[in-house]
C-alpha cells in the first residue's frame, strides 16, 4: 500500500477555500471538481505508454499513447459524485460505477443501499469519496468490489483522518490511497478535524 498526499500548491489553495465555512455550495462544488481533476493527474501518473507510428504534417514518428489502462470511476454516494466530473474530464472513456452507502448517525457505521458496476472486471477501479473518516465506508465499498471480482483498486479522497488511513491500510493493504490532506483526527461524532464539515451536505446544499 502506498499513501500519496498531493501537496501541489493549487490543490492546497483550493482545499483551504473549501474548508472555509462561508464557502457557498456553488463554489464548493466547483472547487471539488477542480481538485479532483488535479489529483487525477497524479493518480494516472504511472499509466503505461505504448508507441504507435503516426504522421505529423512534417514526418512520421513513434508517438506515445496510453496503453490499455481501462478505468472505472466509482463514487461512494452521495459525496463521491462531486469528484467524478473532474476525473472524467481527464479520462473521458472511463466507465462509471456507483456504490450507495451512508453513515448511520448513531453508530457511524456504513449502511449499504446501492451497487451498480460495469461488467468488465479487468478495469482499474478508482473509488472516490471526499471524506475518509473512520474508514468504515471506504473499507466496506472496497470489500464489495473485491467480492465482485475487481483486483486493481485505488482510493481517492480529499481529506482523511489518520484512523481512516490506518483502517484501509489494515483491511486492504493492496489499495493505494490518494489524498489532498491527512488531517489531525476525529471529533466525538467521528467528523474529521479540522476537516470541512459534512461533504455531502456542502456539495448538494442539503443543510
Ligand atoms: C460521508 C463521506 C463518506 C463517509 C465517511 O458520507 O462522504 O462516505 O461519510 O465516513 P467513514 O469513513 O467514517 O465511513 P455520508 O454518510 O455523510 O453520506 P452522504 O455522502 O450521502 O452525505
Ligand atoms: N463525513 C463527512 O462528510 N465529513 C466528515 O468529517 C466525516 C464524515
What's the alpha carbon Rg, rounded to whole Å? 18 Å
| Overall morphology | globular
Arithmetic mean pLDDT: 97
N to C succession of SSEs: EHHEEEHEEEEEHEEHEEEEH
Oligomer: single chain
Secondary-structure class: alpha/beta
Using DSSP, what is the number of strands?
A: 15
Tell me roughly what share of residues is in helical segments: 25-40%
Note the beta-strand portion.
Answer: 25-35%
Most strands sheet: 8 strands, mixed
Spans of at least 5 consecutive residues whose pLDDT stays below 50 are none
Give the termini distance in whole angstroms. Answer: 36 Å
Number of helices: 6
Bound molecules: 1-O-pyrophosphono-5-O-phosphono-alpha-D-ribofuranose, uracil
Describe the structure.
The chain is an alpha/beta fold. Helix content is 31%, strand content 30%. It is built from 6 helices and 15 strands. It has helices at 9-19, 25-43, 84-90, 136-147, 162-171, 199-204; strands at 3-5, 49-55, 60-66, 71-77, 95-96, 98-103, 110-116, 124-128, 131-132, 153-156, 159-160, 176-179, 181-182, 185-186, 192-193. A hairpin with a 4-residue loop joins strand 2 and strand 3 (60-66). Helix 1 runs antiparallel to helix 2. It starts with a strand and ends with a helix. The model has no long low-confidence stretch (mean pLDDT 97).
What secondary-structure arrangement, pairings included, does this model have?
Blueprint: E1 3-5, H1 9-19, H2 25-43, E2 49-55, E3 60-66, E4 71-77, H3 84-90, E5 95-96, E6 98-103, E7 110-116, E8 124-128, E9 131-132, H4 136-147, E10 153-156, E11 159-160, H5 162-171, E12 176-179, E13 181-182, E14 185-186, E15 192-193, H6 199-204
Parallel strand pairs: 1-12, 4-5, 4-6, 4-8, 8-10, 9-11, 10-12, 11-13
Antiparallel strand pairs: 2-3, 6-7, 14-15
The protein binds 1-O-pyrophosphono-5-O-phosphono-alpha-D-ribofuranose and uracil (URA).
Amino acid at each position: 500500500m502506498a499513501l500519496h498526499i498531493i501537496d501541489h500548491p493549487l490543490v492546497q489553495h483550493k482545499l483551504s477555500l473549501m474548508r472555509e465555512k462561508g464557502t457557498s455550495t456553488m463554489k464548493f462544488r466547483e472547487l471539488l471538481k477542480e481538485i479532483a481533476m488535479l489529483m487525477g493527474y497524479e493518480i494516472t501518473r504511472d499509466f503505461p505508454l505504448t508507441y504507435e507510428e503516426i504522421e505529423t504534417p512534417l514526418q512520421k514518428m513513434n508517438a506515445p499513447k496510453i496503453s490499455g489502462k481501462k478505468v472505472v470511476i466509482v463514487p461512494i454516494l452521495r459525496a463521491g459524485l462531486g469528484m467524478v466530473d473532474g476525473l472524467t474530464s481527464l479520462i473521458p472513456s472511463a466507465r462509471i460505477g456507483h456504490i450507495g452507502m451512508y453513515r448511520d448517525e448513531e453508530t457511524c457505521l456504513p449502511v449499504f443501499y446501492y451497487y451498480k458496476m460495469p461488467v468488465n472486471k479487468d478495469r482499474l477501479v478508482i473509488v472516490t469519496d471526499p471524506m475518509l473518516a473512520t474508514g468504515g465506508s471506504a473499507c466496506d465499498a472496497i470489500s464489495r468490489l473485491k467480492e465482485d471480482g475487481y483486483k486493481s483498486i485505488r482510493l481517492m479522497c480529499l481529506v482523511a483522518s489518520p484512523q481512516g488511513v490506518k483502517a484501509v491500510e489494515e483491511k486492504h493493504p493492496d489499495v493505494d490511497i490518494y489524498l489532498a490532506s491527512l488531517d489531525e483526527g476525529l471529533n466525538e461524532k467521528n467528523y474529521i478535524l479540522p476537516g470541512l464539515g459534512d461533504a455531502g451536505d456542502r456539495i448538494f446544499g442539503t443543510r
